[in-house]
Specification:
The chain contains 17 helices and 20 strands. It is α+β, with helices and mostly antiparallel strands. The strands form 5 sheets. The protein has a 6-stranded antiparallel β-sheet, with no helix packed on it. Strands 5-6-1-7-8 form a 5-stranded mixed β-sheet. Strand 19 and strand 20 form a beta hairpin.
Length: 565
């Protein structure tokens, strides 16, 4: 028998109550949170007033406005809801260190061996309920031996029992009515007779003095607690739940009485796996989210400092400790932030970035030293804090053969070990200009002149691994967007033309080289069709790159696109 005890927390109004907390009580009356689903606005969360008005999650926003004229609507923000749930996960760490998120609106706590610290399971659940009531959160709790059973009790433990179906019409009477009447009757059916899975009428935290009550299954009583619950409590897909209901299998107890081999053949192994997890036959661990690595060091000074030499000496003491922590985690610093706390309770901060992640103090120190002049020491600095705001993993290098080892040795002799000098140069320039202002070119596979290279950020890209491919024809040193040339609109090269306000005489020419556009791509710059390129030498010695556009969607003509050295 398992000795685990799992507590499941469900926040049925998480999205709406998050907005209520953010608005600090400025919203009164019905409130719903809507999101776009299949090109229609659908309610994803609502507060207690909206639920009292008859609204429910999954309802169309148009129908909700028709039912409640004073409805307040807010758009859903999944990122903000995820951050709010992460904050609740950190709060739940005060009860047990094993806390994991369960979907978008729930938490799973493994309280094995922790309940006695709070006076028992009942006292622990009361403490959880009181904390949620204090911050204005609706809560449902389920406590059982397994994760699946606790999840089911939290969400379906308040389902209406089978005995509550008295007075409902029988299926024979429904079948004799009109189609519309049968549809309405189908909606009125109890879930145990083929109706929808029960929709819980959740209780608002703090409505009573005791707050929400936890649904607790005693140790070893998982089967008895789950048997009367609907099959939807097994975390099954909606299609599987509907198929089970059509066959008359509407409660978990009905599934437990069926042969497992028949269930696996008819509904797949997923149904059997969920049954085993809920009953404790299959393991389902609670995996708490790992806290992100945080790298920071602090240096408290006995006397305030303000000289540049003192700040550099402080960096020399802080950087080795910070780099040692990075090395222990196999990571390197990419962006660092230095905070200087002054005696007058003010704080000055500077940030710097590296072209490549590093944990070597000698490479980080010069970049921070360039930023120290931006710090106003005021009446003195009594505390320094150095933090890595962005870290990246540094992988060990793979072994290489003699050829690569020889190339690395020659690079070290030239003072550029493995491109470190280039990375340091990019880092120094980035400290002054910004890393995003430094770019590098990579070769690209295209016969279009202006597409034979791609522009990439130097700090977030590697140098080109292969040498640049040599073109079949010479290409200009300077390349610019095509500029119109005044000449006769004929394919024959003119003896003279006018460009940039000057008259040019052709002394020599080489060509033509025909280049066609990429027909599989739509490029507005190539709507004038096929181009015939010429290398033209003028009488004044200028060597230009001209082309004649034959015209497709535009008129034909001559253009100049580049200049040779």
């Amino acid at each position: 028998m398992s000795h685990r005890r799992i507590l499941s927390l469900w926040f049925p109004r998480l999205g709406a109550e998050r907005i209520l907390r953010a608005e600090r009580g400025d919203i009164a009356g019905p409130l719903v949170v809507a999101a776009e689903v299949s090109n229609s606005q659908v309610i994803t969360a609502l507060n207690a007033a909206a639920e009292a008005a008859g609204l429910h999650p999954g309802q169309s926003l148009r129908d909700a406005h028709a039912m409640c004229a004073s409805l307040r609507v807010r758009s859903r923000n999944p990122a903000a809801e995820a951050a709010f749930l992460a904050a609740l996960r950190r709060w739940a760490g005060r009860f047990t260190p094993w806390v994991a998120e369960a979907g978008e609106d729930g938490l799973t706590l493994d309280i094995s061996g922790c309940a006695h610290l709070f006076g028992g399971e009942t006292a622990l659940t009361q403490a959880v309920a009181q904390d949620c009531a204090d911050i204005g959160l609706s809560l449902h709790m389920g406590l059982a031996d397994t994760v699946g059973a606790a999840w089911a009790l939290a969400r379906y433990g308040g389902a209406e029992p089978l005995a509550a179906t008295g007075g409902g019409r029988s299926g024979d009477a429904i079948e004799q009515e009109a189609r519309a009447t049968r549809a309405r009757a189908q909606k009125r059916r109890h879930w145990s007779r083929g109706g929808r899975a029960p929709q819980l009428h959740v209780q608002v935290a703090g409505e009573t003095a005791k707050g929400p009550q936890a649904r607790i299954a005693a140790p070893g009583q998982t089967r008895a607690a789950l048997s009367p619950l609907p099959v939807a409590a097994l975390r099954l897909e909606a299609a599987t739940v509907a198929q089970l209901n059509r066959l008359g299998l509407r409660r978990i107890g009905d599934l437990l009485a069926q042969p497992r081999s028949s269930l696996a053949r008819r509904f797949g192994r997923g149904l059997v796996a969920r049954l085993d997890q809920a009953m404790g036959s299959a393991p389902e661990p609670v995996s708490p989210a790992r806290e992100p690595d945080h790298f920071a060091v602090r240096l408290t000074l006995p006397e305030p400092i303000g000289l540049m030499e003192d700040l550099l000496a402080a960096l020399d003491r802080m950087l080795p400790r910070l780099c040692a922590r990075l090395a222990a985690r196999g990571k390197g610093a990419r962006v660092l932030r230095l905070e200087a706390h002054r005696c007058d309770q003010a704080m000055e901060a500077v940030s710097t970035g590296l072209a490549r992640a590093s944990r070597e103090p000698d490479r980080i120190r010069p970049l921070l030293a360039m930023k120290l002049e931006q710090i106003d020491a005021g009446f003195g600095i009594d505390m320094l804090r150095l933090e890595v705001t962005r870290a990246e993993a540094i992988h060990t290098r793979a072994p290489v053969g003699h050829l690569q080892a020889g190339a690395a040795a020659r690079a070290r002799q030239q003072g550029q070990p493995n491109g470190v000098a280039l990375e340091d140069l990019v880092g120094r320039l980035g400290a002054r200009l910004g890393l995003e202002a430094i770019t590098r070119l990579h070769p690209a596979d295209s016969h279009i002149p202006e597409k034979r290279f791609s522009v990439q950020a130097a700090a977030w890209s590697e140098p080109a691994a292969e040498p640049w491919p040599r073109p079949l024809r010479p290409r200009p040193l300077l390349l610019w967007p095509p500029e119109l040339v005044s000449a006769a609109p004929r394919p024959e090269l003119p003896s003279e033309f006018r460009w940039r306000g000057r008259n040019w005489q052709v002394a020599a020419a080489e060509g033509p080289e025909r280049i066609a556009p990429e027909w599989w791509l739509e490029d507005p710059n190539w709507r004038n069709g096929v181009r015939d390129y010429w290398v033209v030498v003028s009488c004044c010695g200028a060597k230009l790159w001209l082309f004649f556009a034959h015209g497709a969607a535009l008129s034909p003509g001559w253009f100049c696109q580049g200049s040779f050295a």
